[in-house]
């Protein structure tokens, strides 16, 4: 009977759909730990997570089955067993599984029972739920293998302990959200330990996948609720854990307890890693962006340089006749501090050309927001031309506050391939910019500070599309606007709920709700961006474009 175990937690990244690369990475981990008993890999690590409708291609599942059998054959060498996440077809049904590979064969498979279908998750669209899983008896140890959501709810774990499980191993694909790292540890899985009186291994992945970013933060809890191990956040790590069976069952020896990043450092890391993986995995040589002298574009330039290195960041200042000298100076100062390339391309000739082109059609009609939008669209065309000609991806820079109320120009400043600020409210942008000016991020490829002049952070925000324009000419102060939006978006609150909590003028809140609803068509056409909150636009919050419901 086994009395000691060495289990490796492989907190690693992935490439969705690149099964050969994912398998090679798993083999490399196994080769580095040939004396271990068992190596754990994250949920669906062989095919990547979330696979979305890609997983419905029969060819993918067929290839996954072939490679899984090859991985199993590898274990005939007498080295470590492997717990690998993959998929399985049976009678027209597709299952999310884990497979235990040992002794040259697939010893056991278990199917995910609880399929999440909320927020970013849409697993019921592609998978069929498996039955309540049996335990797996392996080398004399009774393992319970709850897959991700199976461990987030009590039913599966209680079922497993009833069958005699001695150790719960939960492999996950759990995306980052603000404060989720501590919630997983102190609430969700500490709850499973309290209910089952069993030790729990929580293994998560790291890295970006389109709008989702995985933060790692894996851990081991002993049966008394104490934390035996905490792995790092945001980075790959292979942690060897050593287990001993005593009178009360299995206990993990104490190991390193990583310190996870606090706010807003964690948000900034999410932005860096998501942009890095998006650009590099999609084969772009770098990025280009418009640098206006404002805080949004400045922090995006800093994020891009941290993600890719300053030599892969191309900033372009595009002044109009409304651009202030202060903005020109701030943009130049920002680019110099970051160390990236800055070009200046005036849009004045193009604006004059459009004025002449439209003079007949616009005769006897007052100048209004139309002319402002033309300027923004000229800038978008200019940046897209540079992107098309030279290959860098255009980075767009609008924040969540602006996108909530439609203060962005479709086919103008919304043009681009990715947006690091898509899920960051304006006050979050201020906090992140201030933090970055005083700190060098752990993941940075551009370890310099500060990255922007303080005047960029302190001056009133302005689009500079008309004389003396300020954002707060037509919007509430951002500190108030963000409170309204947080309730309307994140909490799905009504206008009256917002007024009751903060005492804002009801007509103002009702106007913000109206703008929020009207801007849905713009958000549907916005580029992807990293998810930070519980309710990002796109995967989490899917509203109809056309509807007539209002609470104000």
Overall description:
- α7 packs across α12 and α15 (495-502) packs across α16 (506-518).
- The strands form 4 sheets. The protein has a 7-stranded mixed sheet. A 6-stranded mixed sheet has the order 6-7-8-9-12-13, covered by helices on one side. Strands 18-17-16-19 form a 4-stranded parallel sheet, sandwiched between helices.
- It is built from 17 helices and 19 strands.
- The N and C termini lie far apart (68 Å).
- Helix content is 37%, strand content 18%.
- The chain has 552 residues and is α/β, with parallel strands linked by helices.
Q: Any chance you could write out the topology, listing elements then pairs?
A:
Blueprint: E1 4-11, H1 19-32, E2 38-40, H2 58-74, E3 81-90, E4 93-102, E5 105-111, E6 136-138, E7 141-144, H3 149-152, H4 154-162, E8 167-171, H5 180-196, E9 200-203, E10 206-209, E11 212-215, E12 219-221, E13 227-230, E14 237-246, E15 249-252, H6 265-281, E16 287-290, H7 295-308, E17 313-317, H8 325-338, E18 341-344, H9 348-358, H10 369-390, E19 393-394, H11 400-405, H12 426-438, H13 454-458, H14 478-490, H15 495-502, H16 506-518, H17 520-524
Parallel strand pairs: 1-2, 2-3, 7-8, 8-9, 16-17, 16-19, 17-18
Antiparallel strand pairs: 1-14, 3-4, 4-5, 6-7, 9-12, 10-11, 12-13, 14-15
Helix pairs in contact: 1-2, 4-5, 6-7, 7-8, 7-12, 9-10, 14-15, 14-16, 15-16
């Amino acid at each position: 009977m086994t009395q000691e175990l060495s289990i490796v937690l492989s907190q690693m990244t992935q490439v969705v759909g690149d099964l050969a690369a994912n398998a090679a990475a798993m083999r490399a981990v196994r080769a580095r730990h040939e004396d271990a008993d068992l190596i754990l890999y994250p949920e669906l690590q062989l095919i990547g997570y979330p696979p979305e409708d890609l997983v419905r291609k029969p060819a993918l599942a067929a290839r996954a089955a072939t490679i899984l059998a090859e991985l199993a054959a590898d274990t005939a060498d007498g080295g470590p067993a492997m717990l690998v996440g993959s998929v399985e077809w049976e009678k027209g049904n597709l299952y999310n599984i884990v497979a235990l590979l040992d002794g040259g064969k697939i010893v056991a498979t278990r199917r995910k029972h609880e399929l999440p279908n909320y927020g970013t998750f849409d697993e019921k669209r592609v998978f069929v739920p498996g039955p309540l899983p049996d335990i797996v008896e392996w080398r004399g140890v009774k393992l319970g293998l709850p897959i991700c959501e199976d461990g987030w709810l009590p039913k599966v774990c209680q079922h497993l302990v009833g069958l005699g499980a001695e150790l719960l191993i939960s492999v996950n694909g759990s995306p980052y959200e603000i404060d989720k790292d501590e919630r997983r540890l102190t609430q969700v899985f500490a709850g499973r330990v309290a209910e089952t009186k069993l030790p729990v291994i929580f293994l998560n992945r790291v890295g970006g996948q389109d709008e989702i970013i995985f933060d790692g933060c894996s851990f081991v809890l002993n049966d008394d609720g104490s934390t035996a191990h905490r792995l790092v956040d945001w980075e790959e790590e292979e942690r060897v854990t050593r287990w001993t069976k005593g009178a009360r069952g299995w206990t993990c020896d104490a190991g390193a307890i990583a310190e996870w990043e606090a706010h807003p450092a964690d948000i900034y890391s999410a932005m860096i890693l998501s942009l890095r993986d998006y650009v590099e995995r999609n084969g772009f040589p770098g990025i280009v962006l418009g640098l206006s002298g404002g805080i949004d574009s400045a922090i995006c330039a800093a994020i891009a340089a941290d993600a890719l290195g300053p030599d892969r960041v191309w900033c372009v200042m595009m002044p109009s006749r409304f651009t202030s000298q202060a903005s020109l100076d701030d943009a130049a100062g920002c680019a110099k501090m970051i160390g990236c390339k800055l070009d200046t391309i005036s849009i004045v000739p193009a604006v004059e050309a459009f004025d002449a082109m439209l003079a007949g059609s616009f005769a006897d009609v007052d100048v209004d927001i139309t002319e402002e939008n033309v300027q923004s669209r000229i800038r978008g065309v200019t940046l897209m031309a540079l992107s098309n000609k030279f290959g860098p991806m255009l980075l767009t820079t609008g924040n969540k506050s602006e996108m909530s109320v439609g203060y962005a120009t479709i086919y103008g400043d919304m043009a681009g391939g990715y947006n690091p600020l898509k899920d960051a409210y304006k006050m979050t942008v201020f906090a992140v910019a201030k933090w970055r000016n005083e700190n060098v991020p752990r993941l940075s490829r551009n370890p310099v500070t500060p990255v922007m002049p303080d005047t960029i952070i302190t001056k009133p925000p302005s689009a500079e599309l008309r004389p003396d324009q300020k954002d707060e000419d037509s919007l509430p102060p951002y500190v108030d606007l963000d409170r309204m939006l947080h309730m309307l978006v994140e909490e799905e609150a009504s206008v009256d709920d917002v007024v009751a909590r903060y005492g804002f003028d009801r007509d103002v809140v009702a106007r913000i709700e109206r703008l929020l609803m009207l801007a849905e068509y713009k958000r549907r056409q916005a580029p992807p961006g990293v998810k930070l909150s519980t309710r990002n636009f796109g995967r989490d919050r899917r509203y109809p474009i056309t509807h007539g419901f209002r609470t104000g």
